[in-house]
Amino acid sequence: MAAAAVANIGLMDSAYFVGRGEILSWINATLQLSLAKVEEAASGAVQCQLLDMVHPGVVPMHKVNFDAKTEYDMIQNYKVIQHVFNKLRINKNIEVNRLVKGRPLDNLEFLQWLKRYCDAVNGRIMNENYNPAERRSKGCKERNHKGSNKSSKSLQANRLSSANSADGGILNSSISVAPTTEKVCISTVMEDHYMEQIQQLSEKIADLKVSVDSTEKERDFYFSKLRDIEILCQRPELEHLPMTKGIRKILYAADAKDSSLSEANEIITRSPGMFSDEAECQATPKSPYT
To answer: Cα 25 vs. chain centroid, distance in angstroms?
Structure first.
């Protein structure tokens, strides 16, 4: 499968049936890590380095935070991934809000997709010249160096600001500014207005969470049903049947926009012997002795 086509694979693709153990073994062996759970990759740093391995020089590793703990820091890593996707013209939607919360199923699905993508790019051949530990170390050093430069500049600016404030205080020491009653009233009104907005937004967020949880349960329900159908279609005595082939055609359809029902119907209709038993019964004359 070409790398460009991987972005459009459906949930019934074999990529999404790779187990957690295999995913973790692949990540640990590829990047010289020791992850025990897929949730440990929720920060997005692991995904950044996997992309760096298959696309050397494309990922700005100095922007990747391998020590990200807060959702804010994790989101910055996913911004790096999105930037890389845009640069490589990969049309893949990233569910950042779900991934940063460490949800096992969502993180597993994204890593399953990423494994399929990496395999499509490098043909499942390890890049022997890639040193993951060295790349992580180099990225952290560059990131810390740039961070220290920003801190020193900020410190200098604060010192200049403090000096200017001190000079201004000496010049204007005789001026006394007190908040008026009008300003206090305006501040109180604005505060009440913002509190009301916060309350409304909090209620909307609660409703959305309920809706998302309900949708996820429904998705898992139908996914399990489709999985049962797929397992049934894999039975040796059934997998060669035209009806089974038609069902698998629908299950493995990559394009979600176009229905595969017509193609499945064609497979069933044009298969010789599909209705042979019925035709045989009609063609065989009845014995006069029965």
So the answer is: 20
Of 126, 146, 1, nearest to 60 by C-alpha is: 146
* pLDDT one-digit tens code per residue, 68-101: 999 999 999 999 999 999 999 999 999 999 999 9
The whole-angstrom separation of Cα 185 and Cα 180 is 9
Q: Which amino acid is at 195?
A: M
* C-beta separation of 81 from 17 below 8 A: no
Q: Compute and round to an integer the Cα radius of gyration of the chain.
A: 30
Both tokens of residue 186? 């305006």
Calculate the alpha carbon distances from 280 to 62, 170, 283, 285 in Å.
72, 109, 5, 10
Helix axes 242-251, 181-233, angle to 10 degrees: 160
**Would you tell me how many other CB atoms lie within 10 Å of the CB of residue 30?**
19
- Between the alpha carbon of residue 9 and those of residues 6, 12, 92, 225, 227, the distances in Å are 5, 8, 10, 19, 16
Query: How large is the angle between the packed helices 104-122 and 45-54, nearest 10 degrees?
Result: 10
In Å, the largest CA–CA distance within the chain is: 128
Distance CA 67, CA 151 (A): 19
Helix and strand element counts for the chain (H, E): 11, 0
The two three-digit tokens of residue 129, written as one number: 């010249």
Looking at per-residue pLDDT, the higher value among 55 and 268 belongs to 55
Instruction: Pick the more confident residue, 81 or 268.
Output: 81
Q: Looking at residue 122, what is its pLDDT?
A: 87
> What is the tens place of the pLDDT at every residue in 55-69?
999 999 999 999 999
pLDDT at 206: 78
Note the pLDDT of residue 175: 39
